[in-house]
UniProtKB/TrEMBL annotation:
<dbReference type="InterPro" id="IPR003819">
    <property type="entry name" value="TauD/TfdA-like"/>
</dbReference>
<dbReference type="Pfam" id="PF02668">
    <property type="entry name" value="TauD"/>
</dbReference>
<feature type="domain" description="TauD/TfdA-like">
    <location>
        <begin position="31"/>
        <end position="318"/>
    </location>
</feature>
<dbReference type="InterPro" id="IPR042098">
    <property type="entry name" value="TauD-like_sf"/>
</dbReference>
<keyword id="KW-0560">Oxidoreductase</keyword>
<protein>
    <recommendedName>
        <fullName>TauD/TfdA-like domain-containing protein</fullName>
    </recommendedName>
</protein>
<dbReference type="InterPro" id="IPR050411">
    <property type="entry name" value="AlphaKG_dependent_hydroxylases"/>
</dbReference>
Amino acid sequence: MEFSCKEFKVGKCQGQKLVDGETMPLVLQPPEADKADIDSLLLALKTNRDWFEQLIIKNSAVLLRGFDVKNAQEFNDIVEAFGWDDIRYIGPAPRTHVYERVWTANEGPLSEFIYYHHEMVLITESPKTLLLYCEVPPPEGGETPFVPSFRVTERMLEEFPEAVEEMDAKGLQYSFTALSKNDTSSMRGRGWEDAFGTSDRAEAERRAKALGMDLEWQPNGAVKTVLGPRALTRVFEGRKGRRMWFNTVVGMHGKELSSARMADGTEIPEKVVKRCEEIIEEESIQFKWEKGDVLFFDNMALLHGRRPSLPPRRVLVATCK
């Protein structure tokens, strides 16, 4: 699909990469100075909705820059312009509801690196599209790096074909232990009561089962979640048959409060995990946030994370089916 839309012009940003013929992220700017207001942007998005949705899948990451998006309310208007269904976040990251469909991104310490992941990859239903809005850009660091997932699969198959196919055939099992209450001193500090939206254990178990996970209650009030089997790679419709590295092996293998192994209990070789971590970093793409930026991710195609940052930094998020 060639770029053709009079309501946007193509821009550039530092850190862009050309991946398999596609620019990531594709930067779209106002065509004229008097078209940078939120009303013009919303009209352009609604008028060109189908085209824009195809663009997200084609380029995997689309960055709206130079539009005067002032706050969470206007960001929410952008989210609503597409008519996408909302999907409630389930995961370990501590977050706060801001406005309607808008939440804070991970509120864990800015000094920590959030490892690359597909949003809600452990849950049976993941968001199709992830939207991020930069309300307060960080003075240093704080980038949101992302990785074309198919490139990780390609390179892992080149170096560890037998291990990759074994993991894909057997599937993966993950575990994660959550406290009862939120702990914002940890980037994995979301409590199970907040995650499941209830303090009733029986109701939490019902909701967990619907999401494809089992719960094991701990003496201290914490709960261990067990998920699996889960796929190592997946192929999604409309994405050139690419085999996506749709897992969180590196993010959970041997990490605090979590584990990742093959579904039959077989351990994943440490050298495979370590090399995968290196490959993901080698394939990463990042840009510097600017105030008012709105970033669209194809969550089926991209892993993303967060670099350590100096405060202040405020990036808001919405997740859509």
